[in-house]
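Lay summary. Proteins are chains of building blocks that fold into shapes, and those shapes determine what they do. In this project we predict the shape from the chain. Here is one chain we studied, written as its sequence of building blocks.
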Amino acid sequence: MQSFVEKNELAGAVMLVANKDKILALEAVGYADVENKTPMTTDSLFWIASQSKPITATALMLLVDEGKVKIEDPVEKYIPEFKDIKIKGEKPKTPITVRQILSHTSGLPFSTPEESPTLDKLTIKDSVASYVKNGLKTEPGTAYAYSNAGINTGGRIIEVVSGMSYEDFLDKRLFGPLGMKDTTFWPSEEQVKRLAKVYKPGADKKGLELTKIAQLQYPLTDRKRQPMPGGGLFSTATDVAKFCQMLLNNGKVGDKQLLSETSVKALTSKQTPDSLKDNYGLGFSVGGNFGHGGALSTNMNVDPKRGLVTVWLVQHAGFPGEGGKASGAFRKVAEEKFSETK
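And here is the predicted shape, written in a compact code that computers can read:
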């Protein structure tokens, strides 16, 4: 990775490789702050953006395990306002299901005008109300369209069914048991000091230019900012790995079965209809391996065949290193060096 840093294509990165039991490699390269030459460290904090989606889906599956939610249920069973949702002024032919909101086949838009200019502006309840107001783009189950709105609706179901706020449910039921101490919607002052700065390609695609997270309000520590299930979380490589290791371990954390093997399989296998070529699980990109990326080029990947977790954390608006070669190079080396199948 150092060559990408020296070519000024990559500010810095944290790279982690793990199996289901332990971290095999954890390294940092480059800078968290290029201007001040602040080194990237292995505990640097990152906005993981859409990597929040599989975390939200996993939290919802905890309620499925308890028999409180079924993925084939209509969303309106939990959020009655969804009975009023329309497509081009008409009632949809079939109600939207929980499976569809988690697999981007609900017909909901990516976001609504009410969620502008930033995605952390509205409460989850108010965001969901805006989805009902604005209506569907397509009939449920007929098309794949990547949608923050669908995952946010899943976050609202968690609140309704559990009687807890979405963020408290995540803390108590997922982050606490997994020991994810650095995963939050609101970085503390101490965490902000560890936050990697954001860069984008400079003029004429040469060099790097400092920028900000356009989708969020500042200061990031402000609790008036709302938690966003589709993409609001900040985390570290070690925390992200703990989440991935639990899934690679079929839902187990130590001796405890946190999530059922049935739910792990549902999350990480194709849930889009056979009529669609698009491959997506419940909050997860799937297809042999499973995982998810984020808006600032972050990525996590779980390879069950090789028994490997790889975590790649950067803060780049635009894939760094010759159009994304840096992350591919990291994954290739990790697989060659640590694969359990060799």
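What the prediction tells us: Residues 182 and 235 are 6 Å apart (CA to CA).
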